[in-house]
Amino acid sequence: MTDMTVANTIRDQIGTIAFRLLGAQHLNGDDKSLSFRIRGSRKANHIKVELAADDTYTMTFGKLTASTIKKVGNYKVVATFGQVYADKLNEIIESTTGLYTRF
Question: Cα separations (Å) of 54 from 19, 44, 45, 47, 63?
Fold first, then answer.
């Protein structure tokens, strides 16, 4: 069984309201990361937040289309941010996707 402690912590740091505003779905977590799909952004529709060794996060924004979902390994990375602290997660999501994560 996978330890979901890190994935749950990332989910809590981003916040329930942010996930609802982003239309987040297909949340997948493991012992070092959380990934999910979002709706409403033309720039990116997939986000992966991964815990780094220095207790910061690496955020990867990607674009999945119907053709890339069917082809394994065909994922277009739109942006990557390293050494992100927890208090900057929402700010980077907003600036990269153009969607709001808070009222």
Answer: 26, 26, 27, 20, 27
Question: Do the Cβ atoms of 74 and 103 come closer than 8 Å?
Answer: no
**Cα dihedral sign, 34-35-39-41:** positive
Task: Answer for the pair 79, 93: CB distance below 8 angstroms, yes or no.
Answer: no
CB burial readout 60-82, b (16+ within 10 A) else e: bbbeeeeeeeeeeeeeeebeebe
Residue 55 backbone zone (phi > 0: left; psi -120 to 50: alpha; other: beta):
left
Alpha carbon distance 35, 24 (integer Å): 10
pLDDT digits (tens, 9 = 90+) for 20-47: 999 999 999 999 999 999 999 999 999 9
- According to the model, what pLDDT value does residue 2 have? 75
